[in-house]
What we know:
CATH architecture: 3-Layer(aba) Sandwich
Shape: globular
Strand order of the largest sheet: 3-2-1-4-5
Number of domains: 1
Order of helices and strands: EHEHEHEHE
Number of helices: 4
CATH topology: Rossmann fold
Radius of gyration: 15 Å
Structural class: alpha/beta
Mean pLDDT: 95
Helix content: 40-55%
Amino acid sequence: MSRVAIVTGGTRGIGEAISIMLHEKGYKVAANYGGNDERARDFSNRTGISAYKWDVSDFDACMEGVAKVKAELGPIEIVVNNAGITRDGTLHRMDPENWQKVIDTNLGSCFNMCRATIEDMRASKFGRVIN
């Protein structure tokens, strides 16, 4: 039985490369994405890796997304927290809303995804989290 891995931000850039590498090594991979449906479809068609859409900055969305992956692929034992956004700006131009979006996506998502997957890892006595 192959291990199940979720890669957040897993359909583009570094996340895409990680998803493909894990898939090539025999893992069942769920590539999470947050925005571009067409790009995610293209990724899945090219790689054979399933893409799952949810906002990793949203705790409830992570719980629901992980539950869907678990139902389709099995218990999650590996989480790669790769998702991130950029809202660059000098301090005097940065507004609190954009600052919070970056913190929620780039940092809060690590908690959200770990919390959503920790029970499966504990139950199987195996788990890996890569931030």
